[in-house]
Amino acid sequence: MRVFKTIGSIRDWSFSIHKELKSIALVPTMGYLHEGHISLVRKAKMSADKVVVSIFVNPTQFAAGEDLERYPSDLQRDLDICKKEGVDAVFNPDKKEIYKRNFQTYVENEHIGQILCGKSRPTHFKGVTTIVSKLFNIVDPDFAVFGQKDAQQAIIIKNMVRDLNFKTKILIEAIMREKDGLAMSSRNKYLSAKQRQSALVLNESVKYAEQQFQSGNKDIVALKSKIEQRINSTKDCRIDYVEFVNGDSLQNNIKKGDKVLLALAVFVGTTRLIDNTILKY
Amino acid sequence: MRVFKTIGSIRDWSFSIHKELKSIALVPTMGYLHEGHISLVRKAKMSADKVVVSIFVNPTQFAAGEDLERYPSDLQRDLDICKKEGVDAVFNPDKKEIYKRNFQTYVENEHIGQILCGKSRPTHFKGVTTIVSKLFNIVDPDFAVFGQKDAQQAIIIKNMVRDLNFKTKILIEAIMREKDGLAMSSRNKYLSAKQRQSALVLNESVKYAEQQFQSGNKDIVALKSKIEQRINSTKDCRIDYVEFVNGDSLQNNIKKGDKVLLALAVFVGTTRLIDNTILKY
User: Fold this and answer.
1) Is the complex ipTM more than 0.85?
2) How far apart are alpha carbons B123 and B166 in whole angstroms?
3) d(CA B207, CA B211)
4) Nearest Cβ partner for B165 among A7, A104, A113
5) Within its chain, how far is the Cα of A152 from the centroid?
6) Using CA atoms, how far apart are residues A98 and A54, in angstroms rounded to an integer?
7) Structure confidence at residue A233 as a pLDDT band (50, 70, 90)
8) Nearest to residue A72, comparing CAs of A38, A134, A29, A42?
9) Most CB atoms within 10 A, among A41, A100, A198, B238?
10) Which residues in B lie closer than 8 A to residue A109 (C-beta atoms)?
11) Site from A56, A105, A152, A249 to mutate, B interface, most B CB atoms within 10 angstroms
12) What is the pTM of this model?
């Protein structure tokens, strides 16, 4: 497995792969890999000849006061996981390699980047689309794999690819969960044992909505209210948002037959967790 | 010469060129080609195996009330010129091909895109960086050629390439002028015979500054004032800006040995013209 620290070196490698007419799938990560990331890597391996995992804690997607400084990291463990999974190349640049002095050009979704998570984290998606654009230009991947866990991010990236004509095809892999249902996240590490219990309310809310939809109760207003009550009555939990939106547009226009995205963001203590599910209206 | 109307078709062509390990230079234009564009094409031909000229009047770089609707156009003449110059491919998509429904992702310079021309045309450079990003992703050029006439645009594009890690190398070609010194521009067509005379004040201001610098007078404040007086006393002319700035950063920090950009924007009647020169401080 190759480990590249510089833009020039991974670009040369990518060029040599494409010269052999082989395809590349990129899995962009911020490291501290868990089973969720591994499922993305496995999807990447099934889709392309070569797999690149990028490991870079991207400062521009964190706002002041967020957890950039304490974001968990364990590079050696990440590299061991990548090697075991048969990853071909890891791109692990430092911040100065990625954000040069006088950096001033950003990629931004001006529409759906501003709602849901974009409301409580106003600069977050701008940071995401900017770093993903950079990684696409550096690695030149034929495919890139993202997790359904970050549902809004996945849709914003798909929009970016369409709008800016990237050739990269976006693949989305399902949410991976712990045995008790908690969606996997590097941020779960921040939770105390008690908070870890409270955090189950996210997945329970998702399952509750799925069950209700299956049994024919699709009264979104009532379901939203029930879910909010349930979260509000859970210790240490504070709702950021609970929203049922159109699964393609993320807007409130939902009609019969549409995909509906139930998306949740909940602070458990000071840790902000998200979860979601796709329902059929 | 090939003429492509769709993204898919020029992308396939570009891929086939690169498969033969040949290089591509792109000349992005809004059509209505003049000697200035031709000089860009010739630079492109000297730099790469294949030359693509894009002809697309990009709506996102025009603000409401600007001249989008009446921007001059003569496609057949443009194609004849391209053919004569040995251009390999013209990319001439329609607006719907480039801006699909629900377009929402933009590329923006948040720093130097906001000054000089960016002040009087606040969304202009966002439109430019967005369309150029799209063209780079579609055509995948090894080189792209821009004119020094649009000095600020050239610097913003160079910043964009550095910041977003495009592989494309940016080449800048000198300003082409009419016999009497007026910088060539598709917009010169808007000028009446009298305005055409008045418009010479732009190039005269540039030449005046060059002469003064050469003779050792580098008092920027005094020169700026002289130039402003001269323009203000010219019939039909209204200053948008006259600025001496650092030729790399476009900021006001100028020290001995620096490149200085004198940039002018002047309304002649309702037509906004620009001109510039690089001086040594």
Assistant:
1) yes
2) 22
3) 6
4) A7
5) 8
6) 12
7) very high
8) A29
9) A41
10) 104-105
11) A105
12) 0.97
Probe site for chain A from B163, B166, B170, B249 (most A CB atoms < 10 A): B163
Q: Looking at this protein, which amino acid is placed at residue B223?
A: L
Contacts of A11 in chain B (CB under 8 A): 167
Q: pLDDT tier at A119 (50, 70, 90 boundaries)?
A: very high
Which two structure tokens, joined as six digits, stand for A90?
């890891």
Q: Which two tokens stand for residue B7?
A: 């993204």
Interface touch A108/B108, C-beta < 8 Å? yes
A 10 A CB-CB count for B185 gives: 24
Tokens of B278: 């690089």
Burial label, B215 (beta-carbon count in 10 A; 0-12, 13-18, 19+): exposed
Beta strands B105-109; A105-109: pairing state: antiparallel
Among candidates B110, B134, B159 on the partner chain, residue whose Cβ is nearest the Cβ of A164: B134
End-to-end CA, chain A: 45
State which residue of chain B sits closest to A133, comparing Cα positions.
B164
Domains of chain B: 2-173 (3.40.50.620), 186-276 (3.30.1300.10)
Instruction: Determine, for residues A109 and B105 on separate chains, whether the beta-carbon distance falls below 8 Å.
Output: yes
